[in-house]
Structure formats: structure tokens, C-alpha cells
Specification:
With 21 residues, this protein is of the alpha+beta class. The protein has one helix at residues 17-20, and strands at residues 3-8, 11-16. The longest helix has 4 residues, at 17-20. This is Killer protein.
Length: 21
Amino acid sequence: WRVIFRFIGSDIELVDYLDYH
């Protein structure tokens, strides 16, 4: 299970890498 951090504005969103990909 891998996750990536996406910087949106000043917020940080934790997204499941598998879902994102």
C-alpha cells in the first residue's frame, strides 16, 4: 500500500496511490 502527498493550496491531501493511479 503506497500513498502520495498532494499539495493543494495550503492544504495537504493524502491520496491512496493505487486509487490515484
